[in-house]
Amino acid sequence: MSVLPDGFAALEPFAGLWSAPDMAARAALRDAVGDAERQAFHAAMKSLVRPALERLDGKPLDALDPAERLLLALVLAYPHVAMAVEVQGGAEVRHAALRRHMRITPEISPPA
Amino acid sequence: MTDEPILEMLSVDEAAARFGRGPLPAAPYHDPAWWEREREAVFLRSWIHIGHVCEVPEPGSFVRREIEFAGASLLVMRGRDGQVRAFHNACRHRGSRLVDEMSGKRSKLSCRYHMWTYGSDGTLLSAPDFERFHVAREACALKPVATEVVAGMVFVNFDPQPAQSAREFFGPIAAAMERLPVARATCFTEWTYEIGANWKTNFDNFQENYHLRFIHPRTGEQALGPENPFGYPTHYGFLGPHRGQRLWKNPDPPPIPDSLRLGYARVGELACREGLDFPKTDFKLFPCFHVVGLPPYQNYTHTMYPLGPDRTRGQVRMYWTAPPADAWAAFSREFAAVAIRDVLSEDREAVEASQQGLAAIDEVHFQDHEVLLRHLYLEVEKRVRARGKTAALAEVAA
Predict the structure, then answer these.
(1) Which of A88, B33, B110, B307 is most buried, judged by most C-beta within 10 A?
(2) What is the C-alpha to C-alpha distance for residues B294 and B248, in angstroms, rounded to an integer?
(3) Cβ within 8 Å, pair B326-A80
(4) What superfamily would CATH give domain B48-161?
């Protein structure tokens, strides 16, 4: 049985690594993984992020079931990876060294 | 709406004519003796943003703030009467630090040393064997710091008798900030940083676009175009010691990456749903506070707290009026925060490199489009000189 909602089985290989609990952890994950892992997640998510948002749309976050919550975690990891792949590109490693000084305050930064 | 009715908007030439041209001494950016004068004249006498009422939502809620330039640990606390106050985190008996936690909720604060106990409004409620002190209980309340809430944000002033209230000091900008989401915020996204640079060196980076094409070649390309290759603002705005700018709108921006487009796809709709007004905003409030509002979901505050002549702590906050209602809201907020953090991260090396060379040069040169830097410099200098005169007169009188 899939750990993600129907239609998102292609994301299952990424569910373990990319389901960080908050923004600080997601930002740290972006910095910690290698380029190949970012590229692979980005490639898998890119065409599924909009369908995922539509699947979750309109439902209060606290009403999501476990599979939907996991899907949301992947959706929220995507902006970090999209910035790395689509905007920073080859400058990502150097950029990460600068970004690490910007410490996200975990306990008060939403969401979810 | 924009800020134009609030700030006096000038063209670059008008602004240069008003505030002058030519080099200025570099020492105020690095000299420890100047910093000490600046600390006295500016930071111990200005309204400083230190928090938000949403951090102390209920009577007894408190946050602790370490304010290095004042050598102070402050408690920002909501009293039973609902009022938000700031006190020194020090027992009036013999100065013991009262609270170690960064935040919490208590109906009373007790000093562990001799159990002096204070109410949430700072009054001394009890102290063992107090009659042996031969002092009025009222004289032993927690030492207050002037505190004022504007647009939901908590400002303090270490001057025991500030020359102006915060609202007077900000003038019509206060009312403009009351219309921003920050005024109704219940939560925020935050990141902080420390940087090896004077607070003005750091703030100056966010007061000019001259560096955009060199430091932000990827994240800043939307702001550059053939007719404005540096992305200079069209106008600069002034109101007393405060300032701002009107950004140039690129008529033919390069396409943005697909995912960024998705990140911004529904922000307008979400803002409407949340009942938010997002006026285009750029207030650089004296001395060290920047309020930025671009399209919906790109509003943030940036406070630069000096730690010494060549070190600064920055705090960036994106305020939200409620937790995200659904996945789209959560996704859009995450995207906005990631994008802004990416941009702001890119300035670090250039700002620190600039600081490292300042002691080697006697003067700094500001071009016309760096008039906001000059304005901040002159406003600081004016206060330092005036304070110097006041101190000298007091010495003569003594």
Answers:
(1) A88
(2) 12
(3) no
(4) Rieske [2Fe-2S] iron-sulphur domain (2.102.10.10)
